[in-house]
Amino acid sequence: MSRPPSTDLAALGAAISECRACPRLVAWREEVAHTKRAAFADEDYWGRGVPGFGDPAALVVIVGLAPAAHGANRTGRMFTGDRSGDFLFASMYRTGFASQPTSTSRDDGLVLSDIRVTAPVRCAPPANDPTPDERRTCGPYLARELELLAPRVLVVLGAFGWQALLSTLTEQGWDVPRPRPRFAHGAEVVLRHASIGTTTLLGCFHVSQQNTFTGRLTPQMLDAVLERARELVGPPG
């Protein structure tokens, strides 16, 4: 299968970073970038839409919900700069998808292989809760990213991300069953698109501190999901 030129994904990323389509989200991301958190007072916040990050030939795509206000909204890279990202990238390193176990900034040298991280909503929302209209407005960006990548596996983090992704995929022409598949950790669902092909959704509890600090999601559980993704796409190279 031919893979998309990185310039196509770069153009998509530039469009996402310049997007101002949702007034509430734009106001919030910029307010957070201006007021900052005390621990990051000396840093320049990204404060814009956050593109996907990873291998331009990724066969596996990890899908969250939206950037964190003081994580990706600060660093400009998905799941970078917060505890959730620390947990996620450490697992990607252990399972052979990442060159290093940490992701702290856009210029930290991290390289992802065969995998990419993205979200249905690209701006940090107040209370981590985008509205349905905001998700629909942002949906075409995810649709275009999936069209360019044609990934074979989508690892979906959390029930909210699962529902948001299924809604977006339905609106963008994917054959999503009715009733919709229910989220569960370890859930596995095959979906089809007439022009993109077939992909497998893998459910995973979200990497939020609420789950990781309580043991609801352990490193071994996350590793097992990523190892299943590797089984589905085959060995590196």
Count of alpha/pi helices: 8
Order of helices and strands: HHEEHHEHEHEEEHH
Taken from the alpha-carbon principal axes, the silhouette is globular
Report the CATH C-level class. Answer: Alpha Beta
Q: Order of strands across the biggest sheet?
A: 1-3-2-4-7-6-5
Number of domains: 1
Mean pLDDT: 94
The CATH architecture category equals 3-Layer(aba) Sandwich
Can you tell me the CATH topology?
Answer: Uracil-DNA Glycosylase, subunit E
Strand fraction equals 5-15%
Terminal residue distance = 13 Å
Helix content: 25-40%
Q: Could you give me the name of the CATH homologous superfamily? A: Uracil-DNA glycosylase-like domain
Structural class: alpha/beta
- Stretches where pLDDT is under 50 for at least 5 consecutive residues are none
Query: Would you report the number of β strands?
Result: 7
Q: From the alpha-carbon coordinates, what is the Rg to the nearest angstrom?
A: 16 Å
Describe the structure.
- By secondary structure, the protein is of the alpha/beta class.
- It has one domain: Uracil-DNA Glycosylase, subunit E (3-Layer(aba) Sandwich), CATH 3.40.470.10.
- It has helices at residues 6-18, 23-35, 72-75, 83-94, 132-149, 159-171, 209-212, 219-233, and strands at 53-54, 60-63, 115-118, 153-157, 174-175, 188-193, 197-204.
- The chain has a seven-stranded mixed beta sheet with strand order 1-3-2-4-7-6-5, sandwiched between helices.
- α1 runs antiparallel to α5 (132-149).
- It is globular and about 45 Å long.
- The two termini are 13 Å apart.
Annotate the secondary structure layout.
Layout: H1 6-18, H2 23-35, E1 53-54, E2 60-63, H3 72-75, H4 83-94, E3 115-118, H5 132-149, E4 153-157, H6 159-171, E5 174-175, E6 188-193, E7 197-204, H7 209-212, H8 219-233
Parallel strand pairs: 2-3, 2-4, 4-7
Antiparallel strand pairs: 1-3, 5-6, 6-7
